[in-house]
Amino acid sequence: MANWKIRDIAPPRRREKDRAKPAMPQAPEPRPQKMAGKNSLLAKGLAVLVLLGIGSVGVLHVFFATAEVSIWPKTREIELHPVLKTIAEGSLDIENSLIPARTLDLAKEETKVFFASGKAAREQKAKGTIRVYNSYSSSAQVLVANTRFISEDGKLFRSIARVSVPGVSIVDGKQTPGFLDVEVAAAESGEEYNIGPATFSLPGLAGSSRYAAVYGKSQDAMTGGSRKEVAVVTQQDIEDAKDALMLQVIERSRQELLSRVPEDMISGDGALVTRFKEATASAQKGMEVEQFTVTASVKTSLYLFSRSDIAALAGALLSGDITANERAYEAGLRLDFAGISSANDTQEATVKMDMTAVAYEHIDDMEIKLRARGKGEAEATAALAQYESLKKSAFSFWPFWVHSVSGDVDKISVRVVID
User: Fold this and answer.
1) In this predicted model, what pLDDT tens digit does every residue of 262-288 receive, in sequence order?
2) φ, ψ at 384 (rounded to 5°)
3) Is CATH 2.40.30 what the domain over 123-229 is classified as, yes or no?
């Protein structure tokens, strides 16, 4: 018998090409409910931020806003001219016009070259020696002072003194002319008379037999002839140079001493004393030099005063010049030393001071705050304008958008401006 086996028979698979084609994609449908939720959250966030901003501004305005009031009071100047005597030791004695002082001392010497400003014409005549020969006779030839000698090129010279030229002599059976060296000077000044060796004739003998027999010759050149302008020191040159250098040395001494004043001391130009000064010049009036030197020696002393003593002195003197409602502006105190006189052998001196102080009528800060608090800027300014002692006032606020004064006086500050 045949063996039959029963098998599960699966339906045949579709071939790939028989599979259904996928559907074409379509745009998703909008989801309006979800987007509406997002916009709602954003709006709520913005609202919170706005509320926080408004709340911050309110907090700043209420709790932290401040105002500064600047006031410019009317001022007046007070001039004081105290005269005091300095003391080397002790303390300030206003009643007896005594003030402690010490000195800085300095000795300085400087030398400087100056130029002569004077001018002078200087003329020199050329000079030299002419050997005069006498071959006329055995008798001497006398030549008076200023005897003329003319060179071959026409330059005229004159003898300086009267001379006698020896006559002819016989030497070894031959006649030998006598001769004599004669000092001469040119008739005029100038370099043109500085001529070399030459032969000279004597025009005074012209027309006589002696003219050719008495003559001269120079062995060396004539020298020294000149005509020029030279620098000359004048008396004004010397005086001006001394004055200029003396001022320079004193000024440098002043600068050096003032630079050495300690911070706790005060001094000035008028507190400088020149104890010794001397100036000497290397030239005298009329000297023919282009330049000369001047040396100046100076000894100076600078008086120093304690800043605390000056402040105490000013305060005591001002107390009699200001009213009960006035205040002195300390930073406005100006002090000048009008002069100081001192003996050379002592440090004691009499000093004159010029003090200028600024006084203004005082207004209590709390009074200013009470007048301005709680008001707008314009209203507060108008309120302060009622003070006759004020020139003007101004307000500054924080934060910047605030334009009214806080009602809390602790948040208001007052600044006094003196100009």
Assistant:
1) 999 999 999 999 999 999 999 999 999
2) -75, -25
3) yes
C-alpha 289/C-alpha 280 separation (Å) is: 17
Contact 340, 351 (CB under 8 A): yes
**Residue 255, SS3 per DSSP:** helix
Angle of helix 377-384 versus helix 365-372 axis, rounded to 10: 140
* Share above pLDDT 90 across residues of the chain, in percent, rounded to a whole number: 78
Rounded mean pLDDT of 159-176? 93
CA distance 215 to 192: 22
Rounded Cα gap, residues 298 and 315, in angstroms = 37
**Which single residue is written with the structure tokens 């406005």?**
332
Domain boundaries, the chain: 65-76+361-416, 79-116+235-359, 123-229
Residue 257 has pLDDT above 50, yes or no: yes
CA distance 335 to 305: 12
> Burial of 50 by CB count in 10 Å (0-12 exposed, 13-18 middle, 19+ buried)?
exposed
Query: Would you state the torsion angle of the CA atoms of residues 57, 58, 63, 66, taken in this order, to the nearest 10 degrees?
Result: 60
Amino acid at 316: A
What token pair was written down for 18? 């028989």
- Encoded amino acid at 245, one letter: L
Contact 411, 67 (CB under 8 A): yes
Any idea which residue has 């120079």 for tokens? 218
Question: If you average pLDDT over residues 383-404, what whole number do you get?
Answer: 94
